[in-house]
Each structure stands twice: as C-alpha cells, then as structure tokens.
Please model this.
Amino acid sequence: MVATKKFIEFEFRIVHENKTVYFLEFYSFLNMEWTLKEDRVAVIALHRCGYAPIQILDILKNWNITKRFVYRTIKRYNEDSSVDDKSRSGRPQSVRTPAVIKAVKARILRNPKRKQKLLALQMGLSTTVKRVLNEDLGLRAYRRKTGHRLNARLMDLRLKRCRALLKRYAGKKYREIIFSDEKIFTVEESYNKQNDKVYAHSSEEASNRIPHVQRGHFPSSLMVWLGVSYWGLTEVHFCEKSVKTNAFVYQIQS
Model:
C-alpha cells in the first residue's frame, strides 16, 4: 500500500495538551512504499507525544500492529534512537529484492491466473517465485469456483422464488423444515487408483506384499437415511433392499 493511501485512510491527527499535533515525520515517506519502517515511525511519534504503549496500540489497531511490535519498537528507540532495521547476519538477499517483489506483484495484479511455473521461467527466479508469492505477498493459490450460468430470466425467477420461500417460512415456520440424505454402504473395500499405491521394486513384489483389491458384481449393500431439523436429529432409518421408499414412508417410520 502506498503511503499516501494509508495516510488518507487513517486521519493521523491527534489532540495532545489541548493542541492539534501533526506528525511531520510522516511527510518524508508520502511518496514511498509503506513498510515496517513507517509503522515504527508512527509508534515512535505517538510515544514522543507521551502516549502509553496500550494507547498507541488502540490508536493504530486498524493497521494490524501487534502489542509486541509496539513494545519492541519503543525499547529499540530508547536504546539507540533509531527506527531503521538492524543489520542482519548472514548473506543478504540477492534475488528476492524489493524490485523483484514489486515486479511479481504487478504481474499477478494484471493476471491473477498466471501459473507459478511459467512466471518463474519468464523471470528466471526458479523456486524463489513461490517464496515471493507466499511469504512476501501473502498470497495463496485457490481453485476457481463454478456456478450456474444465469441470464436475466433465471435471475428474475430465482428472486421471485426466494421471496416466496421467505414468505412461506416467515416467523417460526422454518422450524418445520427437515433436511434429509441417504447413503449407500457396500461391503467391498474402498479403493482409489490415484491414491492407493504400494512401494516395491517391481509389480510382482507389490502383488505379493499387498493382497489384490477384490471386486464382484452386485456386492452386498445397505442404504441408510437420516434427517435433521431445528428440533434435532431423526432416528437412523435402514432401508431394506429392493424396497421402494417414498417421502410418506420416511415420515411414518421416522
């Protein structure tokens, strides 16, 4: 977030000793990218005006600043009067530079569907792209959701039916609704070709170590029905095989 945006979103003006105090320290950062250093400046500016750490935390609560950050910043300032980052030990980052992070962020903003592997190939960053996306930008890959294709007629129809449902079950009539579902259980072993693997040196060794998954025609099965409503769960209903069950039978036997 650019500093100017954050400055506008949070009116950084307080009343101290019956005077309006402006934090001039911020003006040198108005054209820069907002970082932890600017957060430290905000904490120290309030600290120098006499605010207690708990008060500073309350004022800056919308900035996702933690209590630990406030106390450590004040302690560091009292020790060496600095808000800059401490010199770090070890080799400095040579690939995940601010310029690279900014470039990756810009590409993702232009096309959120961009593939991580292709992005790494284009920028020559290898696995660094994953760390930039996850650690520096705080992004995670999510699956695209599916939904019905709705035109104007279907949207109008849904609106009418939703209003009809709200009218039908207004008040406490929603307590009369019951949700039910059935599940068929078979006696055969659950098997997934993609996930059920056997580690071995050969196919013959795998067959000898783990028995084959046996499959037969028309295995024994059992259908179970259960309902839930505002008042709780129904009793479990075991459906007999080859017997047709309708809503009336469900209601009678439940």
Notes: Residues 3-80 form one domain. The chain has a mean pLDDT of 79.
